[in-house]
Amino acid sequence: MSFLSQGFSSEIVQALTECGYEKLTPVQQQAIPHARRGHDILAHAQTGTGKTAAFSLPIIQQIVDAPKARARGAVRALILAPTRELVAQIANNIENYTQYVDLTVAAVFGGAKMSSQERKLEAGVDILVATPGRLIEHLELGNVKLANLEFLVFDEADRMLDMGFINAIRTIMSSIHSQPQTMLFSATSSPQMNALAQDLLRKPKRIIVNAENSTADTVAHVVYPVDEDRKLELLSELIGRKNWQQVLVFVNYKETANEVVKELKLDGIKAVLCHGDKAQSSRRRALEEFKTGKARVMVATEVAARGLDIQGLPHVVNYDMPFLAEDYVHRIGRTGRAGQQGHAVSFVSREEELTLVQIENLIQHRIKRIQLAGYEPANRDALLQKMHTKPAYRDRQGRTNNANDQGSAERRLRLMKAIKNKSSKTTRLKG
């Protein structure tokens, strides 16, 4: 099915062709016809399935079909996303889609100068892409007006809930006096997600491309059981032995990220950092080095789990298992995109076995275990038997609260102690 068959103008189709778009993806096939008819949409689809085009192209065409004079600070379409990386990516895609039509796009997010964003907003914009926090700042300063908004999109809505943006969303909604066509896109489902959809959407068309909370078929998953204090060694071992050239490594703490990058560099493996303490310019530079192959490894906290579009990324490593089982889906969604094959590798310490069980229950798939000789964890069999036989362990529920607190103080202390006390390496690989 072609984009021309969906009634898009020749200018938009030309831009899509130059972007390399040929046929509609499954989420686009289902969402675009409903969106073109003005329906609200609730869509569950994995990352890398073409969601941005699915929600933005119908909006672009409707704005082109009904041009209006731009007013100071006015916005016709608003797209909210949880991270600055995702906002920048969406805005860049839309700019590519609209290169041959008269339509303005702006992106606002934290870590960038307010003054430059104010200048973009002053004349009014057709499509605004924003993080909730920075948008509220502009609303409070009177730089942007949403009263007559026509289109509203929540991308990665589940992640916005995980990051505690629900109050920010309510504040933004209170500034909207119209009834915009609203589309809500999410990779995972939860009771909180369903409650938000019920509040925001009017008779939505529900779209499910993959089974809810599932992972892409193009990703092969494996787990390496390993003691916490041997993870650094195992990471270097795998990168060197398997000659991995592009690896995105997820950790739970900024301190861990710093330590992992330091150790990898000592092993002769060029690595870069991406976490919240880094300035936006530094994170952008790190991503560029990683994308172009100047760095083999990028070590990131959850801030990079959404919005990173790295073409052909072959390997994702969960150095730490995520605090929320749903975040596993998003992390590994960085690989196996656009029909390409990808590999997801997870390191699971004795303390993280319960998290692994929760993830497998969520995705309804048992992940293959690989035991690497020399890295066998201590007392793992006894723990597994306890977990699967004692009701208190077997029936324990996973976390469902805000992921920003990133676990208990005890877990954090235990992790940092393990890092500081890790055994010295006897061999430095030069992979």
Automatic annotation (TrEMBL):
DEAD-box RNA helicase Q domain segment(s): 1-29
Cellular component per GO, a single term: cytosol
SUPFAM superfamilies recorded: P-loop containing nucleoside triphosphate hydrolases
Domain Helicase C-terminal: 227-378
Annotated EC: 3.6.4.13
Region Disordered, residue ranges: 390-410
Transmembrane segments: none
Sequence ranges assigned to domain Helicase ATP-binding in this UniProt record: 32-207
Motif (Q motif): 1-29
Alphabetical keyword list: ATP-binding, Helicase, Hydrolase, Nucleotide-binding
Signal sequence, renumbered to the chain: none
Protein name: ATP-dependent RNA helicase RhlE
Annotated source species: Vibrio thalassae
GO molecular function annotations of the record: ATP binding; hydrolase activity; nucleic acid binding; RNA helicase activity
Assigned protein family: Belongs to the DEAD box helicase family.
Gene3D superfamilies tied to this protein: P-loop containing nucleotide triphosphate hydrolases
InterPro entries per record: DEAD/DEAH_box_helicase_dom (IPR011545), DEAD/DEAH_RhlB (IPR044742), DEAD_box_RNA_helicase (IPR050079), Helicase_ATP-bd (IPR014001), Helicase_C-like (IPR001650), P-loop_NTPase (IPR027417), RNA-helicase_DEAD-box_CS (IPR000629), RNA_helicase_DEAD_Q_motif (IPR014014)
